[in-house]
Each structure stands twice: as structure tokens, then as C-alpha cells.
């Protein structure tokens, strides 16, 4: 595919958050960003013939930063929802995940009915919150994402008893379930499609990023980084 004209764009600035969420993203003690989404961002930039950098924002500031031109796109756990499509245009999916409910180890919550009367957290205006809202009788607690670690905020709220459970995509919760006091209560096969958010009206960039994504799907590079970071999860785009 053709690289983006250097006169049009000199660098691909990737809006994301600076928090540890393996296997998707985290930084080592030297500041290097690892993980599936991190590698994908660099891979897309390479495919487009551009250098890349990470433009860190709090979760709640992703779309204001995108509108303000502080990055070319958001690549950070964005399930493609009707609400988010009012904020940005989205590429084809680069990942598909189910959702899960995290509880304290020893909790008896194994299905939605076990959460009646319980406080269930999720990121506000997310697909995870939309799922929580289907759990009849639970009390939904939105987390605004205006801190520098919204996932850590939900874990802390669970540990201190402010909430009884929280919903996130399974890929983010499997590593947390290795901690002694945390467990996945149950999973829901929602098959959430994650996409890259581009500022509305920037059809040229959206098309170029979609072409780059199609290229790395077709040549097997996307599958390779998926299996590198998430070998226990089925690759969702078929064999390449």
C-alpha cells in the first residue's frame, strides 16, 4: 500500500493511557511500551511509512484530545459502540473480546442473578457499562476515567468494598485473576469489536489506517502479535 504523504503527516501520534494493562499495554522500567496494542500501533505506523509516538491521556480525555488534534487516532481499548460512534469514526476491528465480571476471591457470584442488589462498576458510557445495565437488580456504578488509572480505580473500589464487582473485557481481567484476592466470577460471550478511533470528517486518514490494518491482517503480522501477547485467546480473524 502507499505510505501517507510526508507533507500531509510527519508522525503518527497514538492517543492512549499510561497505565499497566497487560497483555494490551504497559511500560517497563526504561519507559518502553509493550503489549498487543502497543505493537499494533508501531506496526501500523511502519506500514504507513511513518514514525510513531504515544500521546498519553486519561481515559476520559481521549476524545477531547482527538478533537483538539493532540493525536491522529485513539488506540486504547475502545469497543465500537453507538455512543462512541457519535464521538469519532472507527476503523474495522483489530480485536474481538468477550466480557467478564471480576469479584473478590470467595464471592458466590457466578451469574447475573447473583448480583441482584450488588454494586457493579464499569467505565461510564462503555460497552462494559451497557452489559452491567442488563444485569437485572444490580446497582450500576460508573467510573469516569478521569484519573490516570481507571482500571486500578475499579480494582481498589472492589478491594475496599465500594463495589461488589466490576465488568471489563476478559483480556484485561485474566491477568488480574492471577492475584490472590481477585477472581473472574463469570464471563459473557459478547464478542465486543475493538476499533481505532479517528476524528470525524478525516476520511482520508480513516481510509489509510483501515488499509494498513487490512494489510497486516492479510500478511499475518496481526496474527503474529496476537499470538505473541495473547496465546490463550483464539485469534478472531481466521487463518492468514
UniProtKB/TrEMBL annotation:
CDD domains: PBP2_peptides_like. Signal peptide: none annotated. Residues 11-233 form the Solute-binding protein family 3/N-terminal domain. It comes from the Bacteria. Gene3D superfamilies: Periplasmic binding protein-like II. The keyword Signal applies. Keywords: Signal. SMART domains: PBPb (SM00062). It holds the Pfam family SBP_bac_3. SUPFAM superfamilies: Periplasmic binding protein-like II (SSF53850). Belongs to the bacterial solute-binding protein 3 family. This is Solute-binding protein family 3/N-terminal domain-containing protein. It comes from Metapseudomonas resinovorans NBRC 106553.
